[in-house]
Amino acid sequence: MRQASILYFCVGILALLSDTWVQAEDPYRYYTWTVTYGTRTVLDRPQTVILINGRFPGPNIECVTNDNIIVNVINKLNEPFLITWNGIKQRRTSWQDGVLGTNCPIPPGSTWTYKFQTKDQIGTYSYFPSTAMHRAGGGFGGFNIASRSVISIPYPIPVAEFTLLISDWYRAGHQALKQNLDRGKALPVPDALLINGLSKGASFTGEKGKTYRFRISNVGISTSINFRIQGHTLTLVEVEGSHTMQEVYNSLDVHVGQSVTVLVKFNSAVKDYYIVASSRFTKPILTTTALLRYAGSNTPPSLPLPIGPTYHVHWSMKQARTIRLNLTANAARPNPQGSFHYGTIKVVKTLVLANTAEKINGKLRYAVNGISYVDPSTPLKLADWYNIPGVFSLNSMKTTPVNTPAVLGTSVVGTELHDFVEIVFQNNENTIQSWHLSGTSFYVVAYGDNVWNPSMRKRYNLLDAVSRYTVQVYPTAWTAIYVSLDNKGMWNLRSAIWARRYLGQQLYVRVWNDERSLYTETDPPPNTLFCGLAKRP
């Protein structure tokens, strides 16, 4: 009888634990997106754009830390298509990153389903097409990850929030832009700037005395943008998944591919105010506006527009240095952000990457350390997993700049899981650069002028550098980052300036160990697409 009681007790405990485990599974969010061409009058005449479910921009994804995201993409374009999830780390699932190094594109008239988790992430992100120049035609949207209710945030919860997608825009359309690039021509200055797909007319309404969260992402393809609100200040609270020290700004530079979150208190007179986005480092300077409206306002906004910086490079670099990590705040987990002491970790590899613009076979190409990247017909990830020869060679690119003419190639840098790596982006050109690394975030430890050398390390911020996934590199200058490669996979290190990426300014970082374990990386998903030399087993 005693044994039976113990047995029943154990069965009961197991049942309780089983029920707890089932209930504790992270939520699923399901989306079905139909991608089509459509006609919209974005500027002064109708043009073809890329729509998601008939919308331009596409729908925002609103989720919570650790949610499982299922996106069924129906490609009704007449060409292959992929979406990449800018800044989503894809823990253990580089199969879902949505770039040509990890995925075969979705064929026209076909459907493919992304399945991934927002594991241990909070903050403001975006998504956009990664194939060809589709990003210049639309198909982009916001991707916002709220903190779990059990994790505190380091500021009072705002009464509401707004998502603002700021971008540049070309009348020519993505197909014409691609044709010009294929002919070896550089992109011109954009024709205009947009806020949420509109050149004018966007508005955001709130109540006097209340504080609102603004999630701002630069989803353009070429232009750094300064953002400001007439008569109001911006309190920066988060950058690309990291809570920041809450500095107050009159305006903020948001470079291509970057995202920020600011708090705005409606503490001025009840009327309308201009929201302003203006281009940085372009001639001419482009400007667009939206409206910040107070509930009950009958007073339109008044000129002049608030003044913003234009060509001031050092103004922007100085501002960038003020963006620092909030060491005591929690991020997605309950431990403080400052508990990871990145400044005490030994660097095992240094990469110094110099971008160049060169002619190859008589046409403009962009290169990194003398290699202008060309996508093979077989995704690198599939070639690596299935041991397919002839697709790429590890470490074919030099890890420091070269003085030889650039050549076409497929650059893959080999690293081991948990390597701690220093990367220096050296920009000897007179245009601003923006670099993105998939699969992780990195610490921006320094910005500097001219040419980097090892003595510059004494200037590194080894305490509270902000952790983010996209960083700017100023003209004839350098930016240094530290990154812990703790996510196994094949990760795209690319120019976020899309014409440069399309014409070769990118490479991949292979993060690898010799153990196949679901704890470090999932197997290929059952719906994996195969192409090139990769055949379904």
What proportion of the residues is helical, as a percent range? under 10%
Q: What is the radius of gyration computed over CA atoms, rounded to a whole number of angstroms?
A: 24 Å
* Secondary-structure content class: mainly beta
Beta-strand content: 35-45%
Instruction: Characterize the biggest β-sheet.
Output: 7 strands, mixed
Task: Count helical runs.
Answer: 5
Summed over residues and divided by their number, the pLDDT gives a mean of 94
Low-confidence stretches: 1-23
> What's the overall geometry?
globular
How far the N terminus sits from the C terminus, by CA atoms, comes to 55 Å
Number of distinct beta strands: 34
Textual characterization of the structure:
The protein has 537 residues and is mostly beta strands. The protein is 10% helix and 39% strand. It contains 5 helices and 34 strands. The chain has helices at residues 2-24, 174-182, 313-321, 380-385, 498-502; strands spanning 28-41, 46-52, 61-64, 68-75, 83-86, 111-117, 123-129, 141-146, 160-169, 192-195, 203-206, 211-218, 225-229, 234-239, 242-243, 248-249, 251-254, 259-265, 272-279, 287-294, 349-360, 363-368, 371-373, 393-394, 407-409, 411-416, 419-427, 433-437, 442-449, 467-468, 470-473, 477-485, 489-495, 506-512. The strands form 7 sheets. Strands 9, 10, 12, 14, 15, 16 and 18 form a 7-stranded mixed sheet that branches. The longest helix is centred in the N-terminal third of the chain and has 23 residues, at 2-24. The protein is globular and about 70 Å long. The termini are far apart. Mean pLDDT is 94; it is low at 1-23.
